[in-house]
Amino acid sequence: MSDLHHGNRKTRGSSAGGSVATAHASAKLRDISHSRPRGWKAVAGTAIWAVLLAALLVGILAAIGVRFGSEEPAPVPAAEAARQDLAVRATRLADGARQYDGETYAQVASHAAEFSNALGGVWEPWPTGAPAGTTNPPLPTSGADLSTQELAAQALDLSDAAIAAANGLSESIESAPSRPLYLSIALRARLDAQLLAEAAGTEVPACEANAESAGALAASSAGLEKASASREWIETATARLEPAQRNQRLPRINALTTFEEGMVGAGIPDSRMVPAAYPTDESSENLINLGLENYAEILTGANGDARELVNFGCSLYLDSAERSAAPALPGLANERH
Questions:
Q1: Selection from 206, 205, 158 nearest residue 182 by Cα
Q2: SS3 state at 244
Q3: What is the pLDDT of residues 197-234, one digit of tens each?
Q4: 8 Å CB contact between 266 and 309
Q5: CA-to-CA dists, residue 332 to 74, 107, 173, 213, 286, angstroms
Q6: Which residues, in sequence order, are CB contacts of 116 under 8 Å at separation 6+?
Q7: Do the beta carbons of residue 300 and residue 184 sit within 8 Å?
Q8: pTM (2 decimals)?
Q9: Average pLDDT in the 1-28 region?
Q10: Ranges 40-44, 50-54, 56-60, 177-181, most confident
C-alpha cells in the first residue's frame, strides 16, 4: 500500500511537473508569436523604404541621361532629328573637303566644321561605347570617298536640308534661336557649293530670287533702315568701278531697290535716312562686304519661306571674291566696322 501510494505520488508529481513544463512552453510560444510579427513589420518597412529610395535614385539618373544595361535610346523629336541630320551632313562635308589641297577646300572645311560646332555636334547614344549586346547607330560622317563634284553636290544638299529644317520649325520659344542659324548655314553652304563647283570646273548652281517677295517677307522698320544704308554703300562702291564692271553690277542695285520696295509695300513705315551714315572704313571692298553682311543679317532674322530668303541672299554675291569674303555664319556675327 505504501509503495502504491508512493508510486501514485510519483505519478501525480510527474504529471504536475509536466503541466508546469507545458505551461512554460506555451508561454514561450506566446511570447514568440507576439514578438515575431513586430520583427517582420520592421524588416518589411525597411525593405519598402529601400525600394522607394532605389526607385528615386534610378529616376534621377534617368532624368540626367544615364542609361542602364542595353536599354535602347528613346526616339528623338523631329526638331532634334533635323538638327542631327544637319550636323552629320556638315561633318561629312568638312571631312571630304579636307581630302583636297587648295584654299577653297580649306575654307569650305573650316566653314563646315563651324556649322557642326554651332549645331552642337553629332550626337551619339553612347559616346564612350555601347553596352554589351548593342551598338551605336552607324553615321555617314566620313567624306573620304567624295569627289570634287560630289563635294559641291554635298554642300548644295546641306543648304537644302537647312532650308527644310528652318521651314519645319514650330513657332515656339525653344525653336526661335535655331531658325537664324539654319538660314545662315543654308546661305553659306550655297555659297560654298558655288565655290566648289568653280574649283571642280562644273556648272555653278544659280540662285533664282524674287527681290520684292523677299522684301515683303523680311519687312521691318529696322530692316528697312539697314537695307537702305547698305544699298547706298554698295552703290558707292559700284560707282567707283570701270564702266564695264559697273554695268555688270547695276542689276544688283536694282534688286536691292526692289527689295526695299517690297518692305514698304508690306506696310512698313518709310523711315529711311538719306543720306545714310557710312562706316569708318569706306574702302570699296569693306562697303560691299559690310553691306552684304547686313543683308544676310536681315534675311536670316526674317520669318516666312526660308528658300525664298536664302535664294535672294545668295543672289547678291556676284563673284568668287565676294563669296569667299562672307563669314562662316553670314548674318550672325557682323564684326566688320
A1: 158
A2: helix
A3: 999 999 999 999 999 999 999 999 999 999 999 999 99
A4: no
A5: 33, 18, 19, 22, 17
A6: 87, 90, 91, 94, 122
A7: yes
A8: 0.76
A9: 44
A10: 177-181
Alpha-carbon torsion, ordered 82, 86, 88, 94, to 10 deg: 180
DSSP secondary structure letters along 4-68: HHHHHHHHHHHHHHHHHHHHHHHHHHHHHHHHHHHHHHHHHHHHHHHHHHHHHHHHHHHHTT---
Confidence of residue 67 (pLDDT cuts 50, 70, 90): low
Torsional class of 65: left (φ above 0), alpha (ψ -120 to 50), beta (otherwise): left
C-alpha 268, offset from chain centre: 33
* Cβ pair 143, 99 in contact under 8 A: yes
Residue 35 above 80 pLDDT? no
The residue assigned the cell 523629336 is 77
Of the chain, the end-to-end C-alpha distance in Å amounts to: 137
Q: 67: closest CA among 126, 128, 122, 132?
A: 126
Residues 6+ apart with CB under 8 A from 166: 178, 179, 182, 183, 186, 306
Alpha carbon distance 131, 69 (integer Å): 6
| Averaged pLDDT, 187-193 | 99
Cα gap 283→233, rounded to integer Å: 10
The Cα 160–Cα 224 span in angstroms is 27
Cα distance between residue 121 and residue 93, in whole Å: 13
**Residue predicted with more confidence, 34 or 148:** 148
Q: Which of 144, 151, 142 is nearest to 105 (CA)?
A: 151
Arch. (CATH architecture) of 76-205: Up-down Bundle (1.20)
